[in-house]
Design goal:
3 helices, about 50% strand, about 30% helix, Alpha-D-Glucose-1,6-Bisphosphate, Chain A, domain 4, about 140 residues, alpha+beta
Length: about 140
């Protein structure tokens, strides 16, 4: 199962970072490829996500669920679409100048193209997690 992890520092207090990252609409603005988010209730949302695979692109309908929220410390979630399952976590820790964020995303492809998709996702996850981190930093520090 492909996994991407990135750790980055944000020059904002942990309370501000937590407030931002625990708001699905705010997070959605930072996730690469998100076209739309429909919040269904406090722990569930439906995302329209465009994924580019080489010259092709595909829009995925992803159902997500927040599994855990420990204020000012961590959150965990999972998502599912037709041919893909994903899990993720965000962990926070205060630093001298702000907040350390560790973001992890794991993706498991399903179906007849699973092996091909897993290989593709291994390379794509690195750039996706880096872009997410850059977007979060820009939103919180800008």
């Amino acid at each position: 199962m492909p996994e991407g992890t990135i750790a980055f520092d944000v020059t904002a207090p942990i309370e501000k970072v937590w407030s931002f990252l625990s708001d699905i609409r705010q997070v959605g603005r930072c996730v690469p490829g998100v076209d739309r988010i429909e919040v269904l209730d406090a722990t569930h949302a439906r995302w329209d996500l465009t994924v580019k695979i080489g010259p092709l692109s595909q829009t995925l309908k992803v159902m997500t669920e927040t599994l855990e929220q420990v204020p000012l410390r961590r959150g965990r979630f999972r998502g599912s679409a037709d041919n893909i399952d994903m899990t993720g976590a965000i962990e926070l820790a205060p630093t001298g100048g702000g907040t350390r964020v560790v973001y992890t995303m794991s993706v498991n492809a399903k179906g007849p193209l699973a092996r091909i998709m897993d290989n593709f996702m291994r390379t794509k996850l690195k750039s996706q997690t880096e872009e997410f981190a850059a977007n979060v930093k820009r939103a919180l520090e800008g």
